[in-house]
Amino acid sequence: MNKGVLLVNLGSPDSTDPKDVKKYLGQFLMDERVIDVPYAARALLVKGIILNTRPKKSAEAYSKIWWEEGSPLIVLTERLQKKVQQQTDLPVEIAMRYGTPSIQSGLQKLHDQGVDDVMLLPLYPQYAMATTETINVLAESLRAQHFPKMKITNVPAFYKKDEYIKVLSHSIKEHLEDSGYEHLLFSYHGVPERHIRKSDVTKIHCKIDGSCCSAASKAHEFCYRHQCYETTRRVGQYLGLKPGTFSTSFQSRLGFDPWLQPYTDRTIERMGKEGFKNMAIVTPAFVSDCLETLEEIAMEGEEIFHEAGGEQFTTIPCLNDRDDWAQVIAGWINDWAIVHPATAIA
Q1: CA angle (98, 232, 236) in 5-degree steps
Q2: By the 8 A CB rule, do 201 and 129 touch?
Q3: Radius of gyration (Cα) for the chain, nearest Å?
């Protein structure tokens, strides 16, 4: 079989025009694994309310972070792909779960190059319904419908792989050197608490109170909350961070249902009010800088900190197209190319 690779990221509007933003948000928010309520209720919420109020505000936010080349997330993913491609003989394409280029177009490009065995790599370190799962489900549906002879190997969440932790830790260390920071906040994208319970394959383990995340369980393979805290723990251990000098929070909540806590914005505000003058923040749920990191954290987060009495706010970039990160991905690809997939990437 001829092997190839598809790197899949979240996606972005085609432009900052409210019409393009509305189209993107519609595709994103109507995903049943993002807003997991019955279709009628989801359509009423998204099409009846959100898409009539949010696109203009979101378009303004995107305009603050948009690059001359286009969407930062798309541009950075393209740069990463080019660096990875230089280090492997297998064809490597990119796709977005929402927007363009689509997963179908990515699979088509590989198919046109004779690929019938695809390594599907969602660019999310931690597993979640609204990220890894929705990519895998859509890719399989497209394969069955359009590429029935193609085989797809899904790469599992890589949050605890040593090489990923090493690269993430080195990135953090580089940006914290001589910063004099007092506290490092690990901010992960939030999800509703019910997503954690739905992802519990045991149906009895997850309690979302902290105790379950530290107790060994096969539920951890699909538990986003556990994987976030484990990422923080492993980086803290690798860097030798002292207890009390770092913590975990969750950003970007939507609606009124309970989401994972503590919330990032409230944590930033609390730290400023408690007298912290110098804090740093890193966003390990993302490998590419995007609206949630460049605007929500680097702009809004810094403003919250300053208004609460803080002074220096250091935002650590995502891994983006770092050379060492591209090397890690290329290494996974090349291992998969010569070893049984389950051994190469598990």
Answers
A1: 145
A2: no
A3: 20
Name, in order, each residue with C-beta under 8 angstroms of 271's C-beta and a sequence gap of 6 or more: 183, 185, 279, 305, 308, 310
Q: What is the mean pLDDT of the chain?
A: 95
Beta bridge partners of 7: 94, 121
Between CA 4 and CA 150 the distance in angstroms is 11
Q: E strands of 20-175, at which residues?
A: 92-99, 117-122, 151-154
Pairing of strands 246-251, 312-315: unpaired
Mean pLDDT of 217-245: 95
Q: Per-residue b/e over 185-202, b at no fewer than 16 CB within 10 Å? A: bbbbbbbbbebbeebbee
> Cα–chain-centroid distance for residue 1?
31
Dist CA 154 CA 346 (whole Å): 10
CB burial class (10 A; 0-12, 13-18, 19+) of residue 178? exposed
Residue 111, amino acid: H
Calculate mean pLDDT across residues 22-51. Answer: 96
In order of start, what are the domains of the chain with their CATH numbers?
3-16+66-155+322-345 (3.40.50.1400), 162-315 (3.40.50.1400)
296-300-301 Cα angle (round to 5): 90
Strand (E) or helix (H) holding 169: helix 162-176
Query: At residue 343, does pLDDT exceed 80?
Result: no
What's the pLDDT tens digit per position in 256-288?
A: 789 999 999 999 999 999 999 999 999 999 999
| Tally of CB atoms within 10 A around 31 | 18
pLDDT recorded at residue 344 = 45
φ/ψ bin of 244: left (φ > 0), alpha (ψ from -120 to 50), beta (otherwise): left
Question: For the ranges 93-97, 161-165, 208-212, which has the lowest average pLDDT?
Answer: 208-212
Of 114, 98, 106, nearest to 34 (Cα)?
98
Residue 109 in tokens: 């490009």
